[in-house]
């Protein structure tokens, strides 16, 4: 999994940290720290995926961009050129 | 619809080349595909990695909470590109519409997007910069090497320059329990970006967290031991400091050298483009087929008197990339201006610092909400009687409100009262920015006047 949080948009509501604490954590009162590439590529960690997906959906300002892809056919370095 | 169908042809079978395969390049490429571009897309990047995110490098990565190799950016969609990674572009032939690569290849384009960003300004003495233990922080590789060194538990880390990145590095070191000295030429950390009133708060944050902060000080020389490892830094006050890790955090340099001699309006201050992201040539004439986005761009902004603005901001790279991509595939009447209000965040010493607008244009500041002593406040910057910027320390929920004031060019000082206004917020203070002619470390916003050509030019009137 890969994700990025638009921290200009994020308002530190911490819903994500509540729903997927393995990936999102508050640091101080308002700062959000997150793991940009959680889980292991290629391996389906169903629970982690579900938690992160729920966190994305719960963010009130829709600041989280998530890509569930494990490897990318025909794209990315080593892909088609 | 086009009169001659050329736009349709471009979208169907045109060749688009993107130089700089990072945040701006990737988001632009995705936008082009979203807009129905089905032609060939080539992504050229000198780093050997697919696009990754830089802000975590000085935060999660240095804190040991995410591996530097696990910062790849999520994709919005497949872009079906030909990737040329690990190969820098070395030249541009505008007439032949060709990009030259370091491996001798040439790639032709119908539309070119330049998103080559910036790099860390190196320590000026090359032999000292080459000492083992001396770092900069811009890339994944930089972060990996620095993190490894920090994990080994050095005796003392010296950070040179207390801009945002330098301050974040110092903060991460302290969180790891490492002794840190920060040497800053200015009067306080962040002073170039946020001024002295806020810089004072930043200085207190450093000291409260155990940073040995030395302001008004320059590092004059780095000295290594017999094995070539950095050992001692010499300071401008005549003292020396032992340090086994030195992080040079002196701001950024634009990656424009590869365009030298191409005729494009590119130079040390960036590549000038119009509000629609089209690059200027050195004569000040806008090009039709070359676009610019992200940290390398200088673009005029309506809210700031159409001065050229360079922004080293994540959000700007994304927004400008989207606008550039849209305009590359649009008729002129459908093009959009890049009107993004600058916005930035930083996280250091457990405090969330955010800004909107251009604080560094401000001559005055009003603490509109909260209090500096509590490290939770909103500062509003005024310039010529209007609101020009705002900063929050752990009060980001209010920032949108101030962003609107900037957009509306609302009067300064604000005429309304705010919740949680304290006595210190009753009247504006001088914002206390350093003399703009003295460069500071990493201001992240640079105003660079009105000239599209980034070099000294002699005016030769045409003869008829
Ligand atoms: C440590 C760190 C922390 C940051 N923290 C924040 C933050 O908290 N908030 C915020 O708003 N912003 C932050 N930023 C800034 C943000 O990361 C940048 O604004 C963003 O990366 C700009 O994207 P870009 O694509 O324009 O340029 P870049 O990310 O610089 O990418 C340019 C790419 O082009 C490549 N390139 C250069 N020359 C050539 C060539 N000749 N040929 C081929 N490729 C070339 C470069 O190697 C690079 O890969 C931070 C940056 C760093 C380094
Ligand atoms: S839920 Fe959204 S707004 Fe809240 S902390 Fe997470 S990313 Fe930020």
TrEMBL record, chain A:
Decide whether keyword Electron transport is in the record.
yes
* GO molecular function annotation: 3 iron, 4 sulfur cluster binding; metal ion binding
Q: Does the keyword Coiled coil apply?
A: no
Q: What keywords sit in the KW lines?
A: 3Fe-4S, Electron transport, Iron, Iron-sulfur, Metal-binding, Transport
Q: Tell me the domain of life.
A: Bacteria
Which cofactor(s) does the record list?
[3Fe-4S] cluster
Q: Which PANTHER family match?
A: FERREDOXIN (PTHR36923:SF3)
**Know the name of this protein?**
Uncharacterized protein
Organism, scientific name:
Streptomyces lavendulae subsp. lavendulae
What is the phylogenetic placement of the source species in the record? Bacteria, Bacillati, Actinomycetota, Actinomycetes, Kitasatosporales
Automatic annotation (TrEMBL), chain B:
Q: What is its EC number?
A: 1.18.1.-
Q: Keywords of this protein's UniProt record, alphabetized? A: FAD, Flavoprotein, Oxidoreductase
| UniProt cross-references to SUPFAM superfamilies, sorted A to Z | FAD/NAD(P)-binding domain, FAD/NAD-linked reductases, dimerisation (C-terminal) domain
Asked whether the UniProt record includes Oxidoreductase among its keywords, one would answer yes
Q: Which GO terms describe its cellular component?
A: cytoplasm
Q: Name one GO molecular function term.
A: oxidoreductase activity, acting on NAD(P)H
Matching InterPro entries: FAD-oxidoreductase/Apoptosis, FAD/NAD-bd_sf, FAD/NAD-binding_dom, FAD/NAD-linked_Rdtase_dimer_sf, Reductase_C
Give the protein's cofactors. Answer: FAD
Q: Is this entry keyworded Flavoprotein?
A: yes
* PANTHER family documented for this protein: APOPTOSIS-INDUCING FACTOR 1, RIESKE DOMAIN-CONTAINING PROTEIN-RELATED
Q: What is this protein called?
A: Rhodocoxin reductase
